[in-house]
Amino acid sequence: MRANLRPEEKIFVALDYDNMDDALRMAERLGDTIKTMKVGLQLFFKSGPEILHRLHEMGFQVFMDCKFHDIPNTVAGASDSVTAHGVYMFNVHCAGGLEMMKRAKEAAIKRAEASGIQVPKLIGVTQLTSTSQAMLNEEIGIAGDVQRSVLHYAKLAQQAGLDGVVASGHEIAAIREACGDQFLTVIPGIRPAWAASDDQKRIMTPAAALAAGAHYLVIGRAITHADDPKAAALRILEEVR
């Protein structure tokens, strides 16, 4: 599957803005360099579904990154609603359990078929890239190391019928071994060598992540905070090629 993706299809740009105008200006500045924009909690709750439709009108695919985590019935309803907006991909927290993930996938398929649209890719969030070993054990209360937790959730997501998982670049090889090469890996915490790491702990360069077998890379500040975002995106695309 990775071989079939063009470089501009492998990168999702995180539009982490607090208003729609700035987000759309950034998308416009990037033009046709990148195909998919990621809309997270802050932007979606500020702009509502309109941001999804505006990006679609501009020709972009949308990865809706709102990480659903609730009882199965509630998450199934949320999955139905977001699928109706025609997003390319959305995610749920694997910690919600097997039944929740199954219901989310079933609802997405049912809504897509009823609406005559493509079924969105549904991705499970394993552990956030801000999660350190100490945080996992001492605050969240999960024993063992981070990779063990990530693999457990990845296998659970695959059992539930999800298309893949969100994980850090350091877990890609282990996920591929456990779940196979066709099970998608969406990797945040991607930083080119020339960009700062900010608040994320488990980070990796684009080239290293792709060499490890990543399907998609989520990149935000390295592009959106650059003096010339389009030049930064093109520089990263060259690295991806």
Level of helix content?
Answer: 40-55%
Question: How is the main sheet built?
Answer: 8 strands, parallel, barrel
Architecture (CATH level 2) name? Alpha-Beta Barrel
Supply Rg: 17 Å
Assembly context of the chains = single chain
CATH homologous superfamily descriptor: Aldolase class I
**Structurally, how many domains make up the residues?**
1
Q: Which structural class do the helices and strands define?
A: alpha/beta
Number of strands: 8
Secondary-structure element order, N to C: HEHEHHEHEHEHHEHEHEHH
| Low-pLDDT windows of residues | none
Q: Remind me, CATH topology?
A: TIM Barrel
Instruction: Note the beta-strand portion.
Output: 15-25%
How confident is the prediction overall: mean pLDDT?
93
Mind sketching the topology for me?
Layout: H1 7-10, E1 11-14, H2 20-30, E2 36-40, H3 41-47, H4 50-57, E3 61-68, H5 72-84, E4 89-93, H6 98-115, E5 121-125, H7 133-140, H8 146-159, E6 164-166, H9 172-179, E7 184-187, H10 206-212, E8 216-219, H11 221-224, H12 229-240
Parallel strand pairs: 1-2, 1-8, 2-3, 3-4, 4-5, 5-6, 6-7, 7-8
Helix pairs in contact: 5-6, 8-9
Describe the protein's architecture and organization.
- There is one protein chain.
- With 241 residues, the protein is an alpha/beta fold.
- The protein is built from twelve helices and eight strands.
- It has helices at residues 7-10, 20-30, 41-47, 50-57, 72-84, 98-115, 133-140, 146-159, 172-179, 206-212, 221-224, 229-240; strands at residues 11-14, 36-40, 61-68, 89-93, 121-125, 164-166, 184-187, 216-219.
- An eight-stranded parallel beta barrel has the order 1-2-3-4-5-6-7-8, surrounded by seven helices.
- Strand 6, helix 9 and strand 7 (184-187) form a beta-alpha-beta unit.
- Helix 5 packs parallel to helix 6 and helix 8 runs parallel beside helix 9.
- The chain starts with 6 loop residues before the first helix and ends with a helix.
- The mean pLDDT is 93.
- Pathway: Pyrimidine metabolism; UMP biosynthesis via de novo pathway; UMP from orotate: step 2/2.
- GO terms for molecular function: orotidine-5'-phosphate decarboxylase activity.
